[in-house]
Amino acid sequence: MTSNSRDWGLTILRLWMGFLIAYSGYLKVTGSDIGLSTLISLQSLSVAAWLTVGTHLVFLLGGAAIFLGIAVRLSAFLTALAAAFTVWKNSGADLAGLIDAPHLTTIFVVCVVLILTGPGRLNLGAALRG
């Protein structure tokens, strides 16, 4: 496999997963009981609610940044942390939680791949630097 084909493969993976992560974050922010309506009354939120809102926003903004190719490694790192936190919050240290939440596990694995390999081609980060 040439470097060029690897870069284009990473680009397709980044675009698709960035879209799915951002869309998942959008659904979480707009459809959950801790969503936009509770963001208006920030003073009444507990620490657990702050963490939940924070993970939802990381999915939304991190997915958009991954899709656009802006600070991909940082966005992928924060998104991987949010996915790992969500799995841990829902199932604790039980490894069966990875099987119970395959979409979060997939997001975590793809984010680790993007951290290790970078954004591929067609990213705004390279265009903004140059």
Strand content: under 5%
Cα distance, first to last residue?
27 Å
Largest sheet: none
Q: Give the helix tally.
A: 7
Global structural class: mainly alpha
* Average pLDDT reading: 83
Helical content band: over 70%
List the helices and strands and how they pair.
Elements: H1 3-31, H2 36-40, H3 47-68, H4 72-91, H5 96-100, H6 102-117, H7 124-129
Helix pairs in contact: 1-3, 1-6, 3-4, 4-6
Name the descriptors.
79% helix; 130 residues; globular; mainly alpha; 7 helices
Give your account of this protein's structure.
With 130 residues, the chain is an all-alpha fold. It has one domain. Helices cover 79% and strands 0% of the residues. It has seven helices and no strands. The chain has helices at residues 3-31, 36-40, 47-68, 72-91, 96-100, 102-117, 124-129. The mean pLDDT is 83.
Can you give me a brief rundown of this structure?
This protein is mainly α. It has one domain.
